[in-house]
Amino acid sequence: MQIQAEILQEASPVVARLMKEGKLKIAGGVYDLDTGVVTPLSVTA
Questions:
Q1: What is the DSSP letter of 13?
Q2: How far is CA 5 from the centre of its chain?
Q3: Cβ partners under 8 Å of residue 43, min gap 6
Q4: What are the residue boundaries of the structural domains of the chain, listed by start?
Q5: pLDDT (tens digit, 9 = 90+) per residue, 1-45?
Q6: Of 9, 16, 32, 41, which one has the greatest count of Cβ atoms within 10 A?
Q7: Whole-model pTM over 0.70
């Protein structure tokens, strides 16, 4: 998940700018198809 957050930030100047300005945060999670529960993951990008 951390790698995907970094790729997203590097691939999009708009995302990078908004993150730098503190206007956007990337949140990650894992969705369990069986239970419908989302488990949050820590992302530090």
A1: H
A2: 5
A3: 1, 2, 5, 26, 27, 28
A4: 2-41
A5: 678 878 887 889 998 899 899 999 888 889 999 999 999 987 665
A6: 9
A7: no
Structural contact between residues 44 and 37, judged by C-beta atoms closer than 8 angstroms: no
Largest CA distance in the chain: 38
Q: Are 44 and 6 in contact (CB under 8 A)?
A: no
Cα–Cα distance measured from residue 45 to residue 30, given in angstroms and rounded to the nearest whole number: 17
Residue whose token pair is 């708009």: 14
Structure token pair of residue 27: 């949140």
Question: How many angstroms separate the CA atoms of 33 and 14, rounded?
Answer: 32
Written as six digits, the tokens of 17 are 């700018």
> Which stretches of the chain are assigned E, i.e. beta strand?
28-31, 38-41
Tokens 């930030």 correspond to what residue? 9
